[in-house]
């Protein structure tokens, strides 16, 4: 399974490890996560005894910035897509290949993005079965599960965040936001590409205008 150690990551991690305690858990560390995320990851890894597999880009943050610049600051979807390909998509594809994954569990929900509304609970992505156990859950379901099992949530939730990724591309929810994912990627897109099939046609679907 994969995790971002986001706001409600404990739900999927608890669900999966309750059934398969030693399931490999892929975490793509971009190198740009908030300090709170790294500490939250340590807390959950220890509490749930996670079989954590950390993957990173082969290009360090400093090297990437020297060659490509601060891609997230260019305020356009193409630059963000390039950033996500380097720091997220390539490491995830490498992880799935090296771990010889036949199926991939993820905590996507239909109420998160336009793209995710079209997803099925079981499908295939790049030849791997994709299983989405909490696809139809809503925010209340998440809260009730966290409460029932006394699970922690990301500390940024108390700061008004409903979703959190890299420090430079995440912000708290405001009254003007129509969707929680509007708080990511400077509002230029909703998906980072991890959960989009990597085909020529899908590459055009990374920005929100194509969803």
Question: Can you characterise this structure?
Answer:
- The protein is α/β, with parallel strands linked by helices and 211 residues long.
- The chain has a single domain (2-210), classed as HUPs (Rossmann fold, 3-Layer(aba) Sandwich), CATH 3.40.50.620.
- It has helices spanning 9-19, 35-48, 61-68, 77-98, 139-148, and strands at residues 2-3, 24-28, 51-55, 103-105, 122-125, 128-131.
- Strands 1-2-3 form a three-stranded parallel β-sheet. Strands 4-6-5 form a three-stranded mixed β-sheet, with no helix packed on it.
- α1 links the parallel β1 and β2 (24-28).
- The radius of gyration is 16 Å and the shape is globular.
- Residues 199-211 have low confidence and may be disordered.
Overall body shape: globular
CATH class: Alpha Beta
Main sheet makeup: 3 strands, parallel
How many domains make up the 3D coordinates? 1
- C-alpha-based Rg, rounded: 16 Å
Write the layout of secondary structure elements.
Elements: E1 2-3, H1 9-19, E2 24-28, H2 35-48, E3 51-55, H3 61-68, H4 77-98, E4 103-105, E5 122-125, E6 128-131, H5 139-148
Parallel strand pairs: 1-2, 2-3, 4-6
Antiparallel strand pairs: 5-6
Short account of what is shown:
The protein is of the alpha/beta class. It has helices at residues 9-19, 35-48, 61-68, 77-98, 139-148; strands spanning 2-3, 24-28, 51-55, 103-105, 122-125, 128-131.
Key structural traits:
Rossmann fold; 3-stranded parallel β-sheet; 3-stranded mixed β-sheet; disordered C terminus; alpha/beta; 211 residues; single chain; globular
């Amino acid at each position: 399974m994969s995790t971002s150690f986001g706001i409600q990551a404990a739900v999927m991690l608890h669900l999966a490890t309750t059934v398969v305690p030693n399931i490999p858990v892929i975490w793509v560390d971009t190198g740009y996560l908030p300090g709170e995320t790294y500490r939250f990851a340590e807390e959950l890894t220890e509490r749930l005894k996670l079989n954590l597999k950390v993957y990173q880009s082969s290009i360090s943050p400093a090297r990437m910035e020297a060659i490509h610049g601060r891609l997230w600051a260019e305020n356009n979807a193409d630059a963000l897509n390039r950033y996500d390909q380097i720091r997220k998509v390539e490491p995830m594809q490498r992880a799935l290949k090296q771990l010889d994954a036949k199926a991939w569990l993820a905590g996507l929900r239909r109420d998160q993005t336009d793209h995710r509304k079209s997803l099925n609970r079981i499908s295939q992505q790049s030849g791997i079965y994709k299983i989405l156990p909490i696809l139809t859950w809503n925010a209340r379901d998440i809260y009730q599960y966290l409460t029932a099992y006394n699970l922690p949530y990301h500390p940024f939730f108390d700061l008004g965040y409903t979703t959190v990724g890299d420090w430079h591309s995440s912000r708290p929810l405001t009254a003007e936001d129509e969707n929680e994912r509007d708080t990511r990627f400077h509002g230029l897109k909703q998906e980072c590409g991890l959960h989009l099939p990597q085909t020529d046609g899908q590459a055009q679907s990374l920005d929100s205008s194509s969803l």
